[in-house]
Fold:
Amino acid sequence: MQNEHLNSKKEKIPRTKISEQKPEERIKNFNEVELGYTEEEAVRESMRCLMCKKPKCIEGCPVNIDIKSFIAYIKNKEFEKALEKIREKNALPGVCGRVCPQEDQCEKTCILGIKDQPVAIGKLERFAADYEKNKNYVKNYKPNNSDEVNNFIKANKITNSNIESIRFNNIKVAVIGAGPAGLTCSGELAKMGYKVTLFEALHSPGGVLVYGIPEFRLPKKIVNDEVEYVKSLGVEIKLNTIIGKTFTIDELFSKGYKSVFIATGAGLPYFLGIKGENLNGVYSANEYLTRVNLMKAYLFPEWDTPIKKADIVSVIGGGNVALDSARTALRLGAKKVKLIYRRSEAEMPGRIEEIKHAKEEGVEMVYLTNPLEIIGENGWVKKIKCIRMQLGEPDESGRRRPLPITNSEHEIDTDIIVIAIGQGPNPVLTQTSPDIMLNKKGNIVTDAVGKTSKKGVFAGGDIVTGAATVILAMGAGKIVANAIDEYIKTGIW
Ligand code: FAD
Ligand code: SF4
Structure:
């Protein structure tokens, strides 16, 4: 009865707020900030969906999830079916529901957003993924071969038609890099029947999802469960294997792999190139976050990971990486965290929600300020010399160009500095495959479906686009999986 009432006035229902840990509490722990919808809240939010005949939101999602259908399932309390619907297009819903910039994607094109706030598509996606965690049928499942997978599917009565239809064809494909692009491509190829081996340099799969994005935004358990799902499709993951060192790409071909997908991401940090950057106490965000996440400094005091716990921390940059570093520093006990950004808030590339969270937690935003030099004492960082900026005409990125204001130099006290101004491609693999064409920045050049200049080798995700987003990397993984299938079937390059 209540549902009918809500249905008839669905555009009037306000967007359902998600519960969060309070800012003063959450900066003392690394637990997730947002607590997720309850069943009741998810159903209520799903009722806001207008069930458009031609839903625009689906076009806004880079992997074209059938958003209207999965929301309809949530409305009917058929939560498992909602997840199955999402998984037809997205193998990592718990991740994407949490970290996708929905405001620029699916929610941006939601019709309800014209007059009101859009449906909380990402939060509903997260709900569907989290609901299944109670069932956990893929947890701890480590198949050795295709027979095991098929027996597992039967024994667990998995109804997802994609999984049921797996028929392994014994054609081997190698995927390099277990981040979102590599995991997605592997999952898609496994569903088509290929024998996929996913090679990962680190001791843990997930890419940036495990070594970059902090626990309070994306718990490791969520990533691990979604990796288990990909494994349950029959993908074999080989960790601690650096392609370019352990094997070259040509060696993979000689081992019988018919095609190779490079998804090695953008893991090489950029530096400012200013005096003083080699002082003690200057970290790249990559190193800082890796120490906290992969090397488990977030589990202090049980883990005694070496990382300097400082009173005053300055983070340079304005994207998600800078925001994650600043909020991590607070949780490690910093008394003052400054985020120094050369443009204004309007130009910040970080997600709106994360900017809001950082401000609530007390991160001090120092806009229109650019570092000129790092000043040290006894080998350690002491201050940053900065200059004030003003905004000029838009540059090639479309954002207004920051220009220095003469005679505005000043110094900012700090104990450590975290530099988060971007990352580029790691050259380890490409140096050993000179026949793969790169652009000036060292990114791999591909055509629209991910074909590189080397026959049988595809690439996608951050290694092609430069640092971008999880869902764009996943979208690339999906496109490449179809292209590999076509290449193997037709032999046409
Ligand atoms: P990656 O995730 O980088 O994975 C590449 C993998 O390849 C890594 O595991 C690496 O170890 C492995 N590898 C590298 N070289 C080799 C080799 N030679 N052999 C074997 N393995 C190799 N995006 C969002 O959408 N929302 C966010 O909120 C967000 N926040 C972010 C926060 C941080 C701190 C960072 C760093 C990035 C963030 N991003 C966010 C960006 C997003 O994480 C990336 O765009 C995405 O992970 C790219 O996926 P990928 O698969 O291309 O590469
Ligand atoms: Fe939106 Fe990302 Fe989910 Fe697509 S994957 S529906 S963009 S939250």
